[in-house]
Amino acid sequence: EPEVTQTPSHQVTQMGQEVILRCVPISNHLYFYWYRQILGQKVEFLVSFYNNEISEKSEIFDDQFSVERPDGSNFTLKIRSTKLEDSAMYFCASDGGSGKRYEQYFGPGTRLTVT
Amino acid sequence: EDKVVQSPLSLVVHEGDTVTLNCSYEVTNFRSLLWYKQEKKAPTFLFMLTSSGIEKKSGRLSSILDKKELFSILNITATQTGDSAVYLCAVERGNNDMRFGAGTRLTVKP
Questions:
Q1: How far does the CA of residue A47 sit from the closest CA of chain B (Å)?
Q2: Tens digit of pLDDT for each residue in B1-43?
């Protein structure tokens, strides 16, 4: 069964450093998303991406964040200058394949630890 | 402000019990409501609801949406220990924006 994959599974970085989180959505999906979940808290929407552009972003997704689909398969989230409060699990999700909108499939997540 | 509120926050039952999880919402430009199950890591999709009063079923799980009263319920009958998880309700607004509730942590004891 096709699945969303994410790399790395765990990333440790120092405050102020840039990180890039990588995702490979399901191949025939058209809509891509990033969410984050701070430990013990709820899942929060960051951004959605369709047709090579951001279609919606939350108030969390400020100028420190950017997304890119550099080729036909990868979907990346970049955090330019990480802060301690960016420590969280980051989930990528995709949907829109075979006419099934909104049935989002989530990747396993990348745990980001900012020290 | 848009919000998605789930209740209860946590629930402990014994195998064989039936549980009802609640999700109420206040969002602008509602498109759909989704239920997810989150065990150790990533949420997995359970149901998507767009129309009021139409029950969706999958095995022992079922869900229904009331768009007039702005809530949904997720029922699990004959619970098993494998049902232990956090159940997330999410509401999709226009333009691909999803808001999640805080989740209900269900623990099913043998």
A1: 8
A2: 789 999 999 999 999 999 999 999 998 889 899 999 998 778 9
Q: Are residues B84 and B94 in contact, defined by beta-carbon separation less than 8 angstroms? A: no
Q: How far is CA A17 from CA A20, A81, A82, A86, in A?
A: 10, 5, 6, 11
- Residues whose CB is less than 8 angstroms from the CB of residue B29 and which lie 6 or more positions away in sequence, other chains included: B93, B94, B95
Q: Catalogue the E-assigned strands of chain B.
A: 3-7, 10-14, 19-26, 30-38, 43-49, 56-58, 61-66, 71-76, 85-93, 97-100, 104-109
pLDDT tens digits for range A14-68: 999 999 999 999 988 889 999 999 988 889 999 999 889 998 899 999 999 999 9
Determine the residue of chain B that is closest to A107 in CA distance. B42
3-state secondary structure of B70: coil
What is the distance of C-alpha A94 from the center of its chain?
10
Q: How many Å separate Cα B54 from the centre of its chain?
A: 15
Nearest to A48 among B36, B48, B96 (CB): B96
Alpha-carbon span A15 to B61, nearest angstrom:
44
Q: What are phi and psi of A85, to 5 degrees?
A: -75, -5
- For residue B39, give Cα distances in angstroms to B6, B12, B70, B88: 17, 15, 26, 11
